[in-house]
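Quick check before the chapter quiz. The format below is the same one you will see on the exam, so make sure you can read both the input and the output lines.
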Amino acid sequence: VEAVHLIADGKAPRIPQPKEGATYEGIQKKENAEISWDQPAAALHNWIRGHDKVPGAWTTINDQVVTFYGSSLLDASVPAGQELTIKGASRPGLVTKNGLVVFGNDGKMVLVRNLQFEDGKMIPASKYFSADETTALELTEEEKKMAEDIR
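Here is the expected output.
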């Protein structure tokens, strides 16, 4: 009540807020969201999840910046998959049917579901090695007729 009266009377002390630490702006920058691989799996998961969607936690794979989205801790045996070398990681990741499995320095696993490349293209992590493949859409006769009717 006293503080309200001081404000109402125009006598409340005014202390300027310091600029340092006054905003979250600094942690929203892309260059501050690089993944440090020398951490336990839980810390990696929290880092990826904490930067999901903006600005996106990223790392370097094959000399290209790749941003990770949609992580979860994986508490199972190591799944079968194709190895993927990740810069700075002590152990290669595994591209599996469910996504990209990465390992913390404690040997535990994190599953990443989506990857985004520098050009903005986003793919399911499970499709990493087939990302460059393109397939032509072939319509059946019935579908061709339906497409023509829609036109």
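If your answer matched, good. The chain has a mean pLDDT of 87.
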